């Protein structure tokens, strides 16, 4: 087992992905801006981003992100994930913003030091308003698209970043979260769905960002206590997202951050979690694998969330993270001042 983080190998792994994505990511092309977020946010947490990016490279990336912005009357505005479906006049049939990619784009801009002056906030927030369904959840990218707890989080996070919650119906959002709360204490992607580490984080982080977590308006103290127990039951060595599933490095963040937000991170076994993450490192290529195995292949998602989890564990040399928004605290503070 590795005795510590192989930091320089992780940095090199992230730089390679910042320059060009391997062929394994072809199917994720429409999520390109989220992949960018994994790379730049991980480098930011490692304290390496400012050392590696020249001013010209930084401006180039920012300009590319703004090319992904979708605006115009009648459109679902915000940011798309890539340029694949863009047309010269911006009117392509698939030229629609996506809530998850918009969240990622805004965080990338903040990490890179942009001031949001080119963000069409009115168009974006009006899209959020019309994206909210009657049950309180949100369409991901237009009517009849995906809708679940992931996009509730994205919508609330976007409003938090832009510091305007007036476009969200919190009464129906509250009902959606409550209706997704299960008998075991966890929260599903929607009403009737199995409790899941990712959706539980999305719900709890949303309530935290909206200042609705501790006022009793959505969850009672007893329900929060039961949720903490549910989260703690998901630890063997690392964390797993659902009952009877193997531990997975990305849930070190999803469930670790949930416990952090709920002021209960001291209850988990941090030594076991740290050891699990260390053996999920790829010793030759850098990066982190989904699970510790000799034949495992590291990827950006598991690398980012493993590094974010190490930040939650207060690993020396890593920047502290804001667990609710999923970005370093110094970037979070910059967002609040913008």
Task: Please tell me about this protein's structure.
By secondary structure, this protein is mainly alpha-helical. The chain has one domain (7-337): Alpha/alpha barrel (Glycosyltransferase). It is 47% helix and 2% strand. The chain contains 14 helices and 4 strands. The strands form 2 sheets. It has a two-stranded antiparallel sheet with strand order 1-2. It has a two-stranded antiparallel ribbon with strand order 3-4. A hairpin with a 4-residue loop joins β3 (321-322) and β4 (327-328). α2 packs parallel to α5, α2 runs parallel beside α13 (300-312) and α11 packs parallel to α13. The radius of gyration is 19 Å and the shape is globular. The model has no long low-confidence stretch (mean pLDDT 94).
List keywords for this structure.
globular, Glycosyltransferase, mainly alpha, 47% helix, 338 residues, 14 helices, two-stranded antiparallel sheet
Summarize the structure.
Keywords: Magnesium, Metal-binding, Prenyltransferase, Repeat, Transferase, Zinc. With 338 residues, the chain is an all-alpha fold.
Spatial gap, N to C terminus: 44 Å
Low-confidence stretches: none
Mean pLDDT, all residues: 94
Under CATH, the topology can be stated as: Glycosyltransferase
The number of E-state strands comes to 4
Determine the fraction of residues in helical runs and give it as a percent range.
40-55%
Largest sheet: 2 strands, antiparallel
Shape: globular
What is the string of SSEs from the N terminus onward?
HHHHEEHHHHHHHHHEEH
Main CATH class? Mainly Alpha
